[in-house]
């Protein structure tokens, strides 16, 4: 298996010199669902375009001045920041409407919340990692450092970020990024708001102009789960000798996690096209979002060792050799990226081409209720979503070099 691993240990932050100094502030047809219908909430607009291969690129969205309906969120009240990368406001527990926490970003791909309530945001096209202070603290965002990425003139660059459960004891986070030869994962030391020299723990993930996957997240078992894409080569998804088109499960040092279904392999599940969302519910079940090609995008309940069908099938096939998605959408309405489980137990999915957040109720048996659509067209293409306290944070991905991290009330996405 073409990967490398490197033990980093708890002495990592003490022995690695800080290499990057703290910088200043940076500048729809009907949906197919398990019940056959869908409730749409929020104001509609013309979706941004996506190419016919179901990638996550596209033109900036058609802007709309119409606020979301009162059933989903209040009208946006975000003030314009004085310069890119600064806070537009100082949100507090009493903040009722939308608040821009970070702006002027060239594709805000991933948000990782630190134990102190601050957050890290990856900027895909530059490799920068932004540090956003805890809302209400009075601080301003800063650039904590930059990783040595290589753009793929498409969807590659600095992608997912993940914070391990023992971060307080060992302040290291993880980043997934593209190089000239592959996609890889590095452990990145954190000290006083600045990143140190990254240590590569896992490499050899196929890279391409499209379908680089990139979502990483620590599971309830303490292992790192990795969503990869097939990099435009559909044969990789069914090939258990390739890391492409898979969900991987590895240790924090980059080794295959014990208990994986294929012996010494890091592969947890396969037959995926392009996984950009991972989240666990209260029953410790893993959910993943899946980019389709021309027909269906998917929400999948992940089972170890199972085959999710790509490229043999797209969407529900009713074939016992493959796992059918729990929910599916026409690609014009979704193009899912980040996902999160909300305080109500539903799965919330950030939609790029669909320019929405989709709420998917989850039943105890792992089936889905009727999805509802929120924030349609209000902020354009939505890349990532996180629940932070009594707020929900989203990032935009509008390909206009003016993307934002926005804090919203829970009611904006249907929690209530």
From TrEMBL:
Residues 1-28 form the signal peptide. The keyword Signal applies. The keyword Protein transport does not apply. Residues 106-400 form the Glucose/Sorbosone dehydrogenase domain. PROSITE patterns: PROKAR_LIPOPROTEIN. PANTHER family: HEDGEHOG-INTERACTING PROTEIN (PTHR19328), HIPL1 PROTEIN (PTHR19328:SF13). This is Glucose/Sorbosone dehydrogenase domain-containing protein. It comes from Terrabacter aerolatus. The lineage of its organism: Bacteria, Bacillati, Actinomycetota, Actinomycetes, Micrococcales.
